[in-house]
Amino acid sequence: MEARLYEQQAENKVQCNLCSHRCEIKPGKRGKCNVRENREGSLYTLVYDRIIARHVDPIEKKPLFHFYPTSLAYSIGTVGCNFRCKFCQNADIAHMATDHQGRIMGKAFTPEQIVEEAEITGCKSIAYTYTEPTIFFELAYDAARAAHEKGIKNVFVTNGYMTGEALEMISPYLDAANVDLKAFTDDFYRKFCSARLTPVLDSMRKMREMGVFLEVTTLLIPGLNDDADELRAMAEFMVTELGDCTPWHVSRFHPTYRLTDRPSTPVETLRKAREIGLSAGLKYVYTGNMPGEASECTYCPKCSANVIQRRGFTVVENRVQDDKCPDCGAPIEGVGLS
């Protein structure tokens, strides 16, 4: 299928304007994502109908803790990614085309079939996830439009590297996003992700301006992005630029893919990161990949009552009433909380 958001150039080159790499692609070549190919001066997506992963997940697994808790999300992804994270947890599919000589795999699945499956399985939303949804934008866009007509919500689990043009196109149909803010230094993004920090921050601001409900996740890697001052600056950015009610998930790293020389994140590091976030003014900070922690739960920012009790990705009890704390009446921020 011919891609969206690109410009034809001289000598049959094209410039892709889907993500912030804005790749200039020569005839017969692919962009950094390895799933968009220049064919004689026209850009084509190679994954429009090639789903590599699809599951029915609790929305909490995305993770989204303040967006229709306890609901189900029909979750899909294709191969490919526009980042090259050395610590990728889904490298077998995200980097399949890059690591295996351009290989593209997946089951044929149309946008209409995706929406139908979401309906049949009782899902409140469709989550475009597992790999970066920006690189399968055409499929996500068509599915999101069809889902919108059926009253099904749409969620991006994303690295936030899409262009403003892509966000403007999808925004009428995009209800929520969890953005993976990988660090708060450009050096980290360049060295470990082959990307840059600023476009991610710009996307997060733009999502907030557009009314997309936003949560943020940061995987804490020992010695690389867990410095207290960096975490404080990250939290302060969220408070100032995104709002103090933005939920922040600080998650535990385990050695994987091409970053195996680092240990798993100490539990105490995540607890300290949570305290840093709360001290900076964020109202909701969670620890991830640490089942059984009390910080999986949602607490009232005014009286500290446990209003949504969780165990892992399971909501044990939701006490929120009319989007308020049942004990003190303070508002609990989110969408569809009660």
What would you say this structure looks like, in words?
The protein is an alpha/beta fold and 338 residues long. It has 2 domains: 6-45, no CATH class; 50-296, Aldolase class I (TIM Barrel, Alpha-Beta Barrel). It has 9 helices and 18 strands. It has helices at 91-94, 96-99, 111-120, 137-149, 164-170, 186-193, 198-210, 228-242, 267-280; strands at residues 6-8, 14-16, 24-25, 36-39, 42-45, 50-51, 53-58, 72-77, 107-108, 125-128, 153-158, 176-180, 213-220, 248-252, 285-288, 298-299, 306-311, 314-318. Strands 7-8-10-11-12-13-14-15 form an 8-stranded mixed sheet. Strands 1-2-3 form a 3-stranded antiparallel sheet, with no helix packed on it. It has a 3-stranded antiparallel sheet with strand order 16-17-18, with no helix packed on it. Helix 4 (137-149) links the parallel strand 10 and strand 11. Helix 8 (228-242) packs across helix 9 (267-280). The model has no long low-confidence stretch (mean pLDDT 96).
The residue ranges in which pLDDT falls below 50 over 5 or more consecutive positions are none
Percentage of residues in strands:
15-25%
What is the element string, with H for helices and E for strands? EEEEEEEEHHEHEHEHEHHEHEHEEEE
Q: Separation of termini?
A: 41 Å
In short:
With 338 residues, the chain is an alpha/beta fold. The protein has helices spanning 91-94, 96-99, 111-120, 137-149, 164-170, 186-193, 198-210, 228-242, 267-280; strands at residues 6-8, 14-16, 24-25, 36-39, 42-45, 50-51, 53-58, 72-77, 107-108, 125-128, 153-158, 176-180, 213-220, 248-252, 285-288, 298-299, 306-311, 314-318.
